[in-house]
Design brief:
The protein has about 400 residues and is mainly beta. The protein is built from no helices and 31 strands. The chain has three domains: about 1-40 and about 300-405, no CATH class; about 45-180, Lipocalin, CATH 2.40.128; about 185-300, Beta Barrel (Lipocalin). The strands form four sheets. Strands 5, 6, 7, 8, 9, 10, 11, 12, 13 and 14 form a ten-stranded antiparallel beta sheet that branches. Strands 15-16-17-19-20-21-22-23 form an eight-stranded antiparallel barrel. Strands 24-25-26-27-28-29-30-31 form an eight-stranded antiparallel β-barrel. The two termini are about 20 Å apart.
Length: about 400
């Protein structure tokens, strides 16, 4: 795929799921910038300011490359209250700015925040689905007006990209997704098994030191108790954790507000915050120095079979590289074709048939039954018969990969 604009021509590779509604896309130019994302089929009937209304949970993030940032990651999660062109004051948000939570280095999400939105406006073009939004975020005694571009996927999903001049030195750059909520929410909104992923850089743009990726399960009881089990690749070190018991699980507590803001306590030093979209589904924002970001989805299956489109999501470092692939799971093995772009240059190669194992919880390993000592090419959790999520098992610059049929 080639896209030509006034800035020149860029080359891309993409893989598409079986229904043609979801794809994975990477840049394929040798000089980079090694970007990756999703292709989403639009619903043109939603190209209207009046159609995009309600409460939308969101997650926006990016590494920062101008002062006052040192090149670390900033991430914002919250809820925007949209009403026929008006950003209402009922929304709320939390921020992790390179490890500083809600404006205070001593804060956690359970002790500080959320902050509020004090208003704004938005409009959507009826022909293209492109829109603009301006909203004012209040933080303590100060406020900041943010400007962004919108692209409507459907009445339930909008893509967002900041449009403020980052060179001004006081603005942040961000991109992300907003999903319409089906609230109100309570502790019973988290009840059952969900699959999640989180990722973060381990350094800054100036001093990169790899990345950390996590994939795991969260089992909530609907009453405020949750058990978290995860696998982590931290710059090439594969382990269960962090702060995990010998069986790699953590028992913690959670509290859900009516807005969907979900605080987790007792899961390590910097437990994530969740903004729910629906029951057992939501955006995740970590409280650590890397500003982990990710997503939580309800699990409905523990087996995988057939052909899937695979792609990198949210690469955290310039050295991570990006990839997409078409793979087929069949008879205890997986094979396919992979496109990759990294500082070593773009390439397309076959994926040789390799053994794969999936246990009763939906946890999969490539190669089958590999160990943390080596040999794990890919670790994943099955979400549904048509989707899974996983991470590189040995790379020092790991990425999260989503898998869609």
């Amino acid at each position: 795929m080639d896209i030509t604009t006034t800035a020149g021509t860029q080359h891309f590779r993409a893989t598409i799921n079986s229904t043609g509604t979801l794809g994975h896309m990477i840049d394929f130019d040798a000089a980079g910038p090694y970007t990756a994302g999703e292709l989403l089929k639009q619903d043109t009937t939603a190209f209207s300011t009046s159609k995009v209304t309600g409460n939308y949970a969101f997650l926006f993030s990016s590494v920062q490359n101008t002062a006052p940032s040192s090149g670390g990651k900033t991430a914002i999660a919250g809820v925007l209250d949209l009403s026929t062109g008006t950003v209402s004051s009922g929304g709320q948000w939390d921020i992790n700015d390179e490890g500083t939570v809600d404006g205070n280095p001593t804060c956690s999400f359970s002790t500080c925040g959320p902050y509020s939105f004090s208003g704004g406006s938005y409009t959507i073009d009826a022909t293209s689905g492109r829109g603009t939004i301006t909203f004012t975020a209040s933080m303590g005694g100060s406020s900041k007006t943010l400007d962004a571009v919108l692209y409507v996927v459907s009445a339930n999903q909008v893509l967002v990209l900041s449009s403020d001049d980052q060179a001004a030195g006081t603005n942040i750059v961000f991109g992300g997704t907003a999903l319409k909520q089906t609230g109100p929410f309570s502790n019973s909104s988290a009840n059952g098994t969900s699959i999640f992923y989180l990722s973060a850089p381990n350094g800054t743009l100036s001093f990169p030191s790899g990345a950390t990726t996590n994939v795991g399960t969260a089992k909530a009881n609907g009453l405020g108790g949750i058990t978290i089990y995860l696998w982590q690749n931290s710059s090439g070190t594969l382990q269960c954790g962090p702060k995990a018991a010998p069986n790699c699980s953590v028992n913690a507590t959670y509290a859900v507000s009516s807005s969907g803001r979900t605080v987790i306590s007792g899961a390590g030093n910097h437990p994530p915050l969740i903004y729910l979209v629906s029951s057992n589904e939501g955006f995740m924002l970590g409280g650590g120095s890397g500003a982990d970001t990710g997503f939580l989805q309800p699990q409905s299956s523990t087996s995988v079979s057939g052909t899937y489109a695979v792609g990198t999501i949210d690469p955290e470092t310039p050295n991570s590289g990006v990839s997409d692939a078409i793979v087929t799971f069949s008879g205890g093995s997986v094979s396919g074709t992979n496109d990759n772009n990294s500082p070593g240059g773009p390439s397309t190669k076959p994926i040789p048939s390799t053994s794969v194992s999936v246990d009763s919880t939906g946890f999969g390993q490539v190669a089958a039954s590999c160990t943390t000592g080596g040999g794990c090419q890919f670790l994943f959790y099955v979400i549904s018969p048509k989707s899974a999520v996983g991470t590189d098992g040995s790379s020092t610059d790991p990425t999260v990969q989503t898998v869609d049929q």
